[in-house]
């Protein structure tokens, strides 16, 4: 079909033949007025409607351009008024979205319906508003950085520093992106029933965070152990949880506890243990300036706290290299 014309009446119908002659394979003997054949009968009666059947695959369209063309006859089945005015020929470029069929729930994971790409004005305005807010935050941070440069005696307009305020603003929003994340979205239903009740350990997870006292980095590694209650958590989800809490202004003690409580909330295990070792640049670059010092923190939840045997097993396996 040409992009500049409407389909004529002489062309074959786009609907299957069984929908046009009452020979639906789904209910060939059912009455069209009641029972199981009622839906097919209603769809047959509305077959000339521009709306597709409810079970048809939805293919959203992106309107890329509109061109004015000569007057053409309207498509059959569409109610129009004979005003003599020219019709607009619309050129569409389609980007199909193949919606996945609903799958069976797995391990309590919710089945979310596939949502077509939204094109309505309200969603576009929301996206544009969010982008405007982001740009405003960048500009506000950049102005603050420019003031800092002036206060330390630098010239913000020299070549090497001209784009530094904007670069630092974008970097700071990345360093603190954990404020915009939450446990539910990160776990995303990755909890599986495996009947496993023995200790699971994930160690040597790299962590980078900002000390909230001086806003300088502290870096190290996090080790996580938990005893499941028949349910296990995807390993990458534990890394995502560590990343979420570390991408905030933190102190190491709180970061360790937040990771342990988040795993306990998401998985409901019998026990959780988190150990963190890190080096703080606020003790290396300034202050006491002790390069080789490290800080170790731990948090035990559930049977990891109440049972000395479980705690000792975790620490013994953690120290094995």
TrEMBL record:
Which segments show compositional bias classed as Low complexity?
A: 24-34
Domain named GTP cyclohydrolase I: residues = 142-318
Entry-linked SUPFAM superfamilies: Tetrahydrobiopterin biosynthesis enzymes-like
Q: In which pathway does it act?
A: Cofactor biosynthesis; 7,8-dihydroneopterin triphosphate biosynthesis; 7,8-dihydroneopterin triphosphate from GTP: step 1/1
Q: Which GO terms describe its cellular component?
A: cytoplasm
Report keywords, A-Z. Allosteric enzyme, Folate biosynthesis, GTP-binding, Hydrolase, Nucleotide-binding
- Region annotated Disordered sits at 1-55
Might you name a Gene Ontology BP term for this protein? Answer: tetrahydrobiopterin biosynthetic process
- Going by the entry's taxonomy, the superkingdom of the source organism is recorded as Eukaryota
Q: What's the stated role of this polypeptide?
A: GTP cyclohydrolase 1 is the first enzyme in the biosynthetic pathway leading to folic acid.
Per its record, how is this protein called by name? GTP cyclohydrolase 1
- Source organism (scientific name): Penicillium salamii
